[in-house]
Every structure is written in C-alpha cells, then in structure tokens.
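Order emerges. One example.
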Amino acid sequence: MIFLEGGDYTGVVVLVLAIMLLPSIILGVIGAIFYANEKKKIAKILFIIAVVYVIVSLGICGSMM
C-alpha cells in the first residue's frame, strides 16, 4: 500500500491561507471599530499588530507553501 500519493490539496491551501490572513483581518476590523469610537490609541496598536502579523505569517507560512 502506498499512502504517499497526493490528491486534491485545495483544502490544505485554503486552511493555510486562512491561518495567514484571517487573524489580521479580524484585528483590522476590531481596530476600525475602536477607531470609529474615538479610541485612536488602541486602534493604532491593533493596526500595527495586524500588519506585523501579516508580515510574519507571509514570511513563515509563505515559505512553507
């Protein structure tokens, strides 16, 4: 039996892309909500964390893909 044969890997690619992008999108949306509620310092921190997460995740997960 050969278990190493590949099949359809679209689900794995979608999962990796979701891990790469969804947390930063969620942080950006939360930051936009705080920005609209005049809490600009918290919003700025969340935007910075979201950008750093995207850069790191594209570097690490992107190299795995």
User: Anything to note?
Assistant: The CA atoms of residues 24 and 51 lie 7 Å apart. The radius of gyration is 17 Å. The first helix runs from residue 10 to 36. The chain has one domain: 15-64.
